[in-house]
Amino acid sequence: MRYIDLKRIDVTSDEMKDWLSKAAKKTSDVKAIGTHDERTEYFKKNPIWTNLKPYLKKVYGKVCWYSEADITNEYGDVDHFRPKSMSVDMQKKVILPDGYWWLAYDYTNYRLSCTISNRPSGDDVGKREYFPLKNPENALSPDDNLTKEEPVLLDPCCLYDTTLMGYSADGNPISLSDNSWEVTRVDFSIRAYNLREFSNARRMIHGNCHMVIKLLDQMLSGADNLENNKDIGECISTMQRFISPGTPYSSVAYFYLMEEIIGKSYETELKDLLNKFYIG
Predict the structure, then answer these.
(1) Are 4 and 159 spatial neighbours (Cβ–Cβ below 8 Å)?
(2) Hey, how many other C-beta atoms are within 10 angstroms of the C-beta on 215?
(3) Residues forming beta bridges with residue 165, ordered by sequence position
(4) CB-based burial of residue 208 (10 Å sphere; 0-12 exposed, 13-18 middle, 19+ buried)?
(5) β-bridge mates for residue 112, sequence order
(6) Shortest CA distance to 226 belongs to which of 244, 210, 205, 240?
(7) Is the pLDDT of residue 59 over 70?
């Protein structure tokens, strides 16, 4: 899971100013609605969050924020991280029967998603209304501070959350933490976001990373360092393309590359190069 910095959204752009003006009006309308059914009907008729999809793809690339799968050729969803109509816990028990309706038109609550991660399918996978909390009694109302909540789901827009998950050589997502709460968060996120569905794609990424490191090793057998060699430079450029923002599974490639170079003579040097490109 790659970190998505929402500060990259330019709220001063004409595109966003126009959308924010409409969103403010919609939020005002929703606040005046008294019943759940009426709000749900209003949302169905006014899904202007979908209008932001092209902009989000332009800024962050055509990848799912949960799975990192390519969504170039699919419709994709603008998911409400905190569900707008109802939220349920890990056992599907209702927490907020009306959901976080006041966030329906708040762009900071949006996450660009592929349909496999967001929409319901068998075995209780697909994010849908899931939004379990460590302490469900902390579920909020419009006047409360969202930071009081401790969500179970990993959030791609939270930098720390994106450090908790890694990948096995066979492409399966795994927890990188030994903390029981964090393991619970990773395990449930894997299930809710249907992340095992993408294991084959990650396995291919692992193979590509292994091959490029093997090629680098062969090149370095006749070189002193990573510099001043055209072929080595092209090899490193390939790695940089693997981990480039907007590239499908870029955080997966970054994880595998970092694993592959452990113990290599050039480990520190290459880590510095890749970190500068991946982290900035």
Answers:
(1) no
(2) 15
(3) 175
(4) middle
(5) 78
(6) 240
(7) yes
**Nearest partner of 243 among 188, 280, 211, 218, judged by Cα:** 280
pLDDT digits (tens, 9 = 90+) for 2-37: 999 999 999 999 999 999 999 999 999 999 998 999
Phi, psi dihedral angles at 88 (to 5 degrees):
-130, 160
Of 114, 76, 119, 79, the closest CA to residue 99 belongs to 79
Give residue-wise pLDDT tens across range 130-184.
999 998 887 788 888 888 899 999 999 999 999 999 999 999 999 999 999 999 9
Burial of 239 (0-12, 13-18, 19+ CB in 10 A): buried
DSSP string, 106-135: -GGGEEEE-HHHHS--STT-S-TTB--BSS
**pTM (two decimals):** 0.92
CA torsion sign, 193 to 150 to 85 to 8? negative
Residue 238 burial (CB count, 10 A): 15
Residue length of the chain: 280
User: Residue 226: pLDDT band by 50, 70, 90 thresholds?
Assistant: low
Tokens of 178: 């030994």
Contacts of 174 (CB under 8 A, 6+ apart): 165, 166, 167, 168, 186
